[in-house]
Amino acid sequence: MADHVPVTKAVVPAAGLGTRFLPATKATPKEMLPIVDKPAIQYVVEEAVSAGLDDILLITGRGKRPIEDHFDRAYELEEALRAKEDPERLGSVRESAELADVHYVRQGEPKGLGHAVYCARRHVGDEPFAVLLGDDLIDERDALLQRMLEVRETYGGSVVALMEVEPEQVSLYGCAAIEPTDEDDVVRVTDLVEKPVPGEAPSRWIIIGRYVCDPAVFDVLEKTPPGRGGEIQLTDALLTLAKRDRSEGGPVHGVLFRGRRYDTGNKLDYLRTVVQFAADRPELADEFLPWLREFVAKHDEAGR
C-alpha cells in the first residue's frame, strides 16, 4: 500500500513558454531567470533536497536545454576557474550539478499542470511524490515541504499547501473548501475550485505551488477531461481523491502556510522577489539597502 512508502521523488514542471517575460524568455527558459545570482529553478530543487527528496524529475519541453546544462557538469568552466584559483566560484558552479539525481522528461504539448504531472507516471511508478511549481519560492527558513511530508505520513492520501489571501485575489488561484482537524495547521479539503468567480469562492485559502500526491492521482488524471482553459487541471484530479477514503488513494489534506512565499510568475512580483532576496544577503545588504532607500527617497521627491 502506498501509504507506507516514504516520499523520495519530486516532480518539477518546467515546460511553460514564459510569455509574461518576453522577449527575455525568447531563447532563455523562464525558470533560468536569476534571483540575484542563482536561477529560480535551483532554489526549487534545493528546497526539495532539503526536505530529503533527492530524486528530481523535471518536466521540460522544447527550448529548455539550458536547464539540463545548468544541472550538469561544466568541465571547461570548472577548469578555467581552477586555473584562476577561484575556489568560491568553482564551488558554486559544481553545486548545482551535485545537488540531486536529476532526470528529465518532455511534456510534448502544453495541456496543463495535470498533464505535466501525468508525464511523470513512468518515472514515479506506484510511489507517493511531491510536486513543486517553479513560480513559487518558499523561504528556506520555513520548512513547508517537510511539514507536508509529515502530514502525508499521518493522514495518507494527498496534501496541498494553502495560503490565505485577500478576497479580490482568490479568483486568480485554485481555492479550497476546508474543515478543521485536531491540528491547528492541518485541514481536511472537501472541495477545490480552479480560479473561482469573484464572490463565489468557498474560502480565502488558495493552493500555492506545493503538493504531495498519492500515486492514485495518475489513474484519475488519465480519466480527467480538460477543464478550465481546455487544460487538464491537477485540482480536478485532487477533488476526485478528496472524496475518497484512505484505501482508495484519498483523502486530501491541506497545510495552512503562514510563512514567507515569493512569487516569480509575473514581472512585478519577480522584481519584488529579487529585491527581497538581495536584502537578505549579508554581503549585498550593507550597500544595497542604503542605495535603495536613497533611490526611493529621490524618486518620491522627484514625483512631488
Helix and strand topology:
Layout: E1 9-13, E2 34-35, E3 38-39, H1 40-50, E4 55-60, H2 65-70, H3 75-83, H4 87-98, E5 101-106, H5 113-118, H6 121-124, E6 129-132, E7 136-138, H7 144-155, E8 158-164, E9 174-180, E10 186-194, E11 205-213, H8 216-223, H9 234-242, E12 252-256, E13 261-263, H10 267-279, H11 282-302
Parallel strand pairs: 1-4, 1-6, 4-5, 8-12
Antiparallel strand pairs: 2-3, 6-11, 7-13, 8-11, 9-10, 10-12
Could you explain how this protein is built, in words?
This protein is of the alpha/beta class and 304 residues long. It has a single domain (2-265), classed as Spore Coat Polysaccharide Biosynthesis Protein SpsA, Chain A. The protein has helices at 40-50, 65-70, 75-83, 87-98, 113-118, 121-124, 144-155, 216-223, 234-242, 267-279, 282-302; strands at 9-13, 34-35, 38-39, 55-60, 101-106, 129-132, 136-138, 158-164, 174-180, 186-194, 205-213, 252-256, 261-263. It has a nine-stranded mixed beta sheet with strand order 5-4-1-6-11-8-12-10-9. The chain is globular and about 60 Å long. It catalyses: alpha-D-glucose 1-phosphate + UTP + H(+) = UDP-alpha-D-glucose + diphosphate.
Global Rg: 20 Å
Helix content: 25-40%
Characterize the largest beta sheet: strand count, sense, and whether it forms a barrel.
9 strands, mixed
**Which fold name corresponds to the CATH topology?**
Spore Coat Polysaccharide Biosynthesis Protein SpsA, Chain A
The side-by-side strand order for the widest beta sheet comes to 5-4-1-6-11-8-12-10-9
Tell me the name of the CATH homologous superfamily.
Answer: Spore Coat Polysaccharide Biosynthesis Protein SpsA, Chain A
Can you identify the CATH class?
Alpha Beta
Overall mean pLDDT stands at 92
Query: Tell me, what's the shape?
Result: globular
Q: Secondary-structure element sequence?
A: EEEHEHHHEHHEEHEEEEHHEEHH
Strand content: 15-25%
